[in-house]
């Protein structure tokens, strides 16, 4: 669909004209065309072909000619001409939070600033702050904007997005006229990183109600910058505890709420497949509903859309066009694992290593969640910075755990360890001690930058140990901070299947390791997954949902995940790998 890129081109033309100080009327008209195109859900090529585009308010003859030109040639001459009139890096200034076309025009005209680098210079030498209407405060805000831009890849972690969505939905719930609220986009699909947060709200019939909701959102105290505000859509950067986050709020009519939820949940690729199915069935699917001619056949609830397309309902977690549409046709979708299926948590740290609570405290908290068991897995001695336990300390801890597990009723405390895999692939503790444990996670915490062959061999060798039950955070990545090891994942999965070793889905949103597609590969090879929160505090136990969602995005069912078994079954599973 060319709508998105056309929306960008018209906006860019308006921006350049504004920077160049051209005619106000023509600037506004381009901006309006951009916005209208951005709001249209139907493919603009179809609208053009059917002549319907001429009927869309706000798009005049000359704009239609430009759109036609773009569809035929892939470019618009007027746009190319405008680009030639400005220095090549000038438009990058617009990506700095707080810099709009007016600001860019001012620094370009008066200070001859042509790039972000030059903007930084102008702020440092004080000339920026001296511009009329700017000042020190504005200069400081722009510097923060540049720093943010330099730091960010533009995508945020899942937990940051969840936090931002809470802030906004809490407000929306308070606003009069709000009926239903639904987070959509990549956040609803629980993708490992999020570009922006999408939220849908259904409102009553009146236009006023919708405007009030958008107004309420864009004027909220947590809003740092309003990017766009229209009658049914608002887009803003909001402040959160960690990072600035872009949030898009759309108000949709009640009768279209399900269709909008379906459309804006995406993914784009999934939507394209659905639209094809609709067309084949002589129907039309867009964000307003599923239509047969003029008649709406579904729209208020998402389930109806799938039903009317003769598909089983597809969970948002699966909507990536990775085979889910085919499976829905033949009613062979997996029954995905859910948080409610989880009976225990396998990975957590206490005060004994680098955690911040006692075994008894974390056990009580786990019991509160409803778990039947937990496994205490403090670090081993080689993880010195994480205050790893010596062999003697672990032996003591095992005794302590046995006593506590007796004493605290209603939950079983398993004795485990997160044992370092040493450089040669051997274990940080000897087999005799490992044999005393109920469950052993083996993890790499050093030498992660080593070549592929080395890190792979090291991991395979660890799995050969009959006391190793699981490889912790197998690739070692930290999202946005550290690359994954260059691991031969296929080899690791194959060996895990051969050695009856589970692979961890580390639920910490910094890790989500294994990631979704690797979970799917593991499951296909019959490898069991273990979901561990890697909690270092009581609150950390609450991260389980991220791990469950990641496994489910890899099509995991209850049977693929060890956490759904009873403690007794876990013990017999562990026993079956050990020498008799
Ligand atoms: P993100 O924000 O980059 O993490 O990813 P999404 O999936 O949230 O993408 P976003 O925010 O651009 O759009 C939200 C959803 O809206 C997207 O998943 C599918 C739908 N959507 C947006 N643009 C288009 C489009 O041009 N065609 C179709 N079919 N769907 C679109
Ligand atoms: Ca999004
Ligand atoms: Ca969005
Ligand atoms: Zn850990």
Question: Which key phrases capture this entry?
Answer:
single chain; alpha/beta; DNA polymerase, domain 1; Beta Polymerase, domain 2; Beta Polymerase, domain 3; 4 domains; seven-stranded parallel beta sheet; five-stranded mixed beta sheet; binds 2'-deoxyguanosine-5'-triphosphate; binds calcium ion; binds zinc ion
CATH top level class name of the largest domain: Alpha Beta
Give the CATH superfamily of the largest domain. Metal-dependent hydrolases
Shape estimate: globular
Runs with pLDDT <50, length 5+? none
How many angstroms does the end-to-end distance come to?
62 Å
Largest sheet: 7 strands, parallel
Which strand order do you get reading across the main beta sheet?
11-12-13-14-15-16-17
Structural class of the helix and strand makeup? alpha/beta
Average pLDDT level? 94
Would you give the CATH topology of the largest domain? TIM Barrel
Instruction: Catalogue the ligands.
Output: 2'-deoxyguanosine-5'-triphosphate, calcium ion, zinc ion
Under the CATH scheme, the architecture of the largest domain is Alpha-Beta Barrel
Strand content: 5-15%
- Total strand segments: 17
Description:
With 580 residues, this protein is α/β, with parallel strands linked by helices. Helix content is 44%, strand content 14%. The termini are far apart. Bound molecules: 2'-deoxyguanosine-5'-triphosphate (DGT), calcium ion (2 copies) and zinc ion. One calcium ion is lined by residues 185-186, 195-196, 198.
């Amino acid at each position: 669909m060319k709508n998105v890129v056309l929306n960008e081109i018209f906006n860019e033309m308006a921006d350049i004209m504004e920077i160049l100080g051209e005619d106000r009327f023509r600037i506004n008209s381009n901006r309006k065309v951009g916005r209208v195109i951005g709001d249209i859900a139907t493919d603009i090529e179809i609208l053009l072909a059917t002549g319907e585009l001429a009927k869309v308010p706000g798009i005049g003859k000359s704009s239609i000619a430009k759109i036609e030109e773009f569809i035929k040639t892939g470019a618009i001459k007027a746009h190319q001409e405008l680009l030639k009139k400005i220095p090549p890096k000038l438009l990058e200034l617009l990506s700095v939070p707080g810099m709009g076309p007016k600001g860019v025009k001012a620094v370009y005209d008066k200070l001859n600033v042509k790039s972000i680098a030059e903007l930084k210079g102008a702020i440092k030498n004080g000339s920026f702050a001296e511009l009329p209407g700017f000042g020190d405060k504005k200069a400081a805000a722009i510097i923060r904007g540049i720093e943010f831009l330099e730091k960010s890849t533009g995508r945020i972690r899942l937990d940051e997005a969840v936090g931002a969505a809470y802030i906004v939905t809490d407000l929306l719930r308070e606003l009069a006229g709000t009926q239903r609220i639904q987070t959509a986009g990549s956040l609803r699909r629980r993708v490992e990183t999020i570009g922006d947060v999408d939220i849908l709200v259904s409102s009553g019939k009146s236009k006023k109600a919708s405007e009030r909701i958008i107004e309420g959102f864009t004027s909220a105290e947590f809003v740092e910058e309003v990017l766009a505000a229209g009658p049914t859509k608002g887009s803003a950067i909001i402040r959160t505890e960690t990072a600035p986050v872009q949030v898009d709020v759309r108000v949709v009519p009640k009768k279209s709420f399900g269709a909008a939820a379906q459309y804006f949940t995406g993914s784009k690729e999934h939507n394209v497949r659905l639209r094809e199915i609709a067309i084949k069935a002589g129907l039309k699917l867009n964000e307003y509903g599923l239509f047969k001619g003029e008649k709406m056949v579904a729209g208020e609830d998402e389930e109806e859309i799938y039903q009317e397309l003769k598909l089983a309902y597809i969970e948002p977690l699966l909507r990536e066009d990775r085979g889910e549409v085919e499976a829905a046709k033949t009613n062979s979708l997996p029954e995905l694992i859910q948080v409610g299926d989880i009976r225990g948590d396998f990975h957590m740290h206490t005060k004994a290593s680098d955690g911040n609570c006692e075994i008894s405290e974390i056990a009580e908290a786990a019991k509160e969640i409803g778990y039947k068991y937990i496994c205490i897995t403090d670090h081993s001695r080689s993880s010195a910075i994480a205050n790893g336990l010596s062999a003697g300390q672990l032996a003591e801890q095992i005794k302590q755990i046995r006593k506590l597990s007796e004493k605290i009723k209603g939950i079983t405390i398993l004795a485990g360890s997160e044992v370092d895999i040493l450089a040669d692939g051997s274990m940080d503790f000897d087999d005799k001690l490992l044999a005393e444990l109920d469950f052993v996670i083996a993890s790499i915490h050093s030498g992660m930058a080593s070549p592929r062959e080395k890190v792979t061999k090291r991991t395979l060798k660890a799995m050969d140990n009959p006391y190793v039950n699981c490889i912790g955070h197998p690739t070692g990545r930290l999202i946005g901070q550290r690359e994954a090891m260059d691991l031969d994942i296929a080899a690791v999965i194959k060996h895990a299947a051969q050695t009856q070793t589970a692979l961890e889905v580390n639920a910490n949103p910094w890790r989500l390791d294994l990631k979704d597609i690797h979970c799917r590969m593991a499951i296909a090879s019959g490898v069991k997954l273990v979901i561990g929160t890697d909690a270092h505090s009581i609150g950390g136990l609450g991260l389980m949902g991220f791990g469950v969602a990641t496994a489910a995005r890899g099509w995991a069912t209850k049977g693929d995940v060890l956490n759904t078994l009873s403690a007794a079954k876990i013990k017999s599973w562990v026993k079956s790998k050990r020498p008799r």
